[in-house]
Amino acid sequence: MQLQVKKFNSFGISCAILVLLLATKTAPTDAVLEDVLDIIHVIKEVTTGILKAWDVVQSSPLASKIEFPLMREKQRKVLERLKEVNRQIEKTEEKQSQYTSLAIESVNDFIGTNVKLIAKMNEITDIMNRISSRYQQMTKYEAVKDKLEMVTLVTFAEWTVAPNAHSVHHLMDRLHLTLLGNTEKNNSSSGNLLAQLAANYEFSSSQICNMHQSPQQFVYALYSDIALTELKGYIMMEFSWMMLRVYGKGNFTQEAELMRNDYERRTERTLKLLQEVMRRSARIVWRCDPEPQHHVLGQTYDEVTRLLQGFIENEVDLNSDETCRETCSYYQNTRTESCFKEKFCARQPGCKGRLYNCQFVQSDMWVCQAPLNSTRRYEYVEYENGSVLGRRGRCVRGTSKVDSWWRYLFWHCSYCMCLCDEQSIKSDRFFNLREAVSDFTQNRVVTGLRFIKKNRIFHLQIQEGELLPRGNINQTSLTWKPVDNYNIFDRDVIKGVDYHSLSYESRSVDLDDINTDDPSFVVTGVRFRVVGTHLNLEARLTEINFETGKLVNSKELSYWNSNDNTDVSGDNRRKKLSISSPDIPTRTIVKSIPMSKHNEFIEFVNSDLYKDAAQTTVPFMDVQDVVSNPPVPLSGVGIYYKGRPGFGGFLAPKIITYDFTRHVVVPKRTP
Ligand SMILES: *[C@@H]1O[C@H](CO)[C@@H](O)[C@H](O)[C@H]1NC(C)=O
Ligand SMILES: *[C@@H]1O[C@H](CO)[C@@H](O)[C@H](O)[C@H]1NC(C)=O
Ligand SMILES: *[C@@H]1O[C@H](CO)[C@@H](O)[C@H](O)[C@H]1NC(C)=O
Ligand SMILES: *[C@@H]1O[C@H](CO)[C@@H](O)[C@H](O)[C@H]1NC(C)=O
Ligand SMILES: *[C@@H]1O[C@H](CO)[C@@H](O)[C@H](O)[C@H]1NC(C)=O
Ligand SMILES: *[C@@H]1O[C@H](CO)[C@@H](O)[C@H](O)[C@H]1NC(C)=O
């Protein structure tokens, strides 16, 4: 498949003719067509251009009256028109090729063992290569137009339109048939190649990673490639009829018209199909984990630290009377009151916050404390019966023997394992609540998202880019908008206004997709707010003019959208996503898969007691860029959870690409 990838790049589409007819015969509909996707636009322009070239040959006399110098002059003119047309094709191809190759790469990845699909793809590739190479040959004629023998062009033209199995004419038929199946007989779009590829892509995107294209973008990229090829085929045929006419081989008005009708019909069918496949394709782009061994703190992930952390404390220090009359589990919400006789409590940093959910494991243990610069307190704890909390390894600071004791024979002063919620310099638990919005004055929209930890505060950072006509983004304008550089201790920075601080009571994050069904709005900002005890995502939506690519310029016409649901019961309640027995997320040897749905929430929790001595706060935050290629405006954004059972997983943003479906216009031919 590797070889074919390259060749595949040079291909193209089918929907042009239709548009052409429209544009030339019913001029007033031109305006409507401004509102379409790039490729349809190009097809329109090219086909209009080539039709105009017929003016040159219109008055060509029939064979009997050929005048050689006049003929040469006409040939030259036609070739010049061709050159103009070709310039547009090349420009489009150049712009398109990288996205197409990205799409093709994905095809190669997921198509893997599907023999039927491979065969179809191979056939399409083959046909497209043939059309493209013939097309290249034709464009070369232009360069040597003054030295060309008449017979060369005539042979080329005759070959192109000949009714045999090698002609371009025939290749176009085959391409269409392979792509759509026999749609005359079966309207069901599920049988066609585009739909099959889209379905496969969507299915595999949960397994194959880093595609950077939503399924809808993928379908469109493939389609554009095929459409360009069909356009080339069409140009060759028009050109050929013109040449034959120039050389007095006949009138050919009828033939050309028939061919055009054919192209028109196919284009219409293909566009209808494209529209349907695009409507059904998902538009989500998410980022999968890096290779399991390549998680890098600060680059691919970051952590909320020491929100709830396993902490060993003796019962005697958990109450103000220094008694040991209860059991560990009696202490569900308490604090350290003392340090009785300077025992183990004096040999470890204390917990200055509240202690929750204390439990008794075993009386006597060895504790391996973590290095002082670590956010962990303990590397591991080993009990006398052999049970280990965390992973036993080399202990740099040496282990401490910690034994519970009896007081007056009936009271056991046990060492309990509690969860410590301590706000300290080591506890990064802040989320920015200020808005991150794109620059209106420069006509910019949000094109990507990522989490970033700055001054211990998590921000949802936006990538912004200048919006251009027809849903394009100016690539060179793409930038990650710097996040607000403030510190929680700064003057005028207020908890609950500028930032949210997680705590035992308030540590939920809502997992929502915030988007709009209205295709005239796109995302221009994001922010978090606190609803009850939940962090909740909001997206700012702004109206755009698709055709001109301008934001409808006023902040008043933008609004913030969110999922305000706080129901805890009923059918539409916000469901809690629980993480059971989570190990450190980066320890998994397989990549995470998305596990949350819209309208759920998740809590930050401590890692599992046995797997990690409850030392880590999970989920981690994925801090990789989430952007699409090509960059497009977004109709929505979201926060979701990805992971694997038994591991803590990651919170990450996703983007929902703009829905281009309604700009796949199937023009109506007016009588
Ligand atoms: C197929 O589509 C055509 C035109 O859209 C329609 O007239 C015909 O009834 C359809 N056939 C079936 C079997 O759905
Ligand atoms: C149409 O194509 C679909 C998908 O290949 C197939 O399931 C269905 O049976 C076909 N219908 C007819 C009438 O051939
Ligand atoms: C070519 O055929 C068309 C329609 O058949 C006719 O209108 C036109 O006059 C013909 N042109 C020449 C140059 O014969
Ligand atoms: C802690 O310090 C040691 C030695 O100075 C260093 O090797 C290690 O990377 C540090 N760990 C952290 C988490 O900063
Ligand atoms: C040690 O004791 C704990 C608590 O009683 C128990 O859960 C664990 O299974 C024991 N471990 C071994 C190795 O016996
Ligand atoms: C794209 O953005 C760059 C940098 O912001 C700017 O110089 C250039 O003029 C823009 N191009 C278009 C087509 O707007």
Automatic annotation (TrEMBL):
<protein>
    <submittedName>
        <fullName>Uncharacterized protein LOC115626861 isoform X1</fullName>
    </submittedName>
</protein>
<dbReference type="InterPro" id="IPR032062">
    <property type="entry name" value="DUF4803"/>
</dbReference>
<dbReference type="Pfam" id="PF16061">
    <property type="entry name" value="DUF4803"/>
</dbReference>
<feature type="signal peptide">
    <location>
        <begin position="1"/>
        <end position="31"/>
    </location>
</feature>
<feature type="coiled-coil region">
    <location>
        <begin position="72"/>
        <end position="102"/>
    </location>
</feature>
<keyword id="KW-0175">Coiled coil</keyword>
<keyword id="KW-0732">Signal</keyword>
